[in-house]
């Protein structure tokens, strides 16, 4: 079961930490987002993923390991990050990231991927 976390609760940070440490997933309630914004976002995502792959390649991740852009079905294998052989993921995704430059010097290689240039 995916935990449902109420963002109005004072201890919601602890709830999020528990959810991430156990199932790795959670859903939120009382987030303050207008339902029309959520509906538009959902509809826009469906319109994008319903496009033919040939159209989506215009915004594809330009190289393996790049964090932003479209990744096709079977384009990634998350389990390989654990150093194990695994079949490709049966998902396609579109990842976005920060538009602004980092506010500090990036010295940790594990952090640097999050500040790749935007497409």
UniProtKB/TrEMBL annotation:
The keyword Lipoprotein does not apply. InterPro entries: DIOX_N (IPR026992), IPNS-like_sf (IPR027443). GO terms for molecular function: metal ion binding; oxidoreductase activity. Keywords: Iron, Metal-binding, Oxidoreductase. Residues 2-104 form the Non-haem dioxygenase N-terminal domain. Residues 82-119 are annotated as: Disordered. This is Unannotated protein. It comes from freshwater metagenome.
């Amino acid at each position: 079961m995916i935990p449902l976390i109420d963002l109005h609760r004072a201890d919601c940070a602890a709830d999020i930490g528990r959810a991430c440490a156990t199932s790795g997933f959670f859903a939120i309630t009382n987030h303050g987002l207008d339902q029309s914004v959520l509906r538009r976002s959902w509809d826009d995502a469906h319109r994008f993923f319903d496009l033919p792959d040939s159209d989506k390649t215009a915004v594809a991740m330009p190289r393996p390991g790049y964090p932003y852009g479209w990744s096709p079905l079977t384009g990634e294998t998350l389990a390989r990050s654990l150093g194990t052989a695994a079949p490709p993921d049966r998902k396609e995704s579109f990842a976005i990231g920060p538009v602004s430059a980092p506010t500090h010097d990036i010295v940790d290689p594990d952090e640097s991927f999050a500040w790749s240039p935007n497409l």
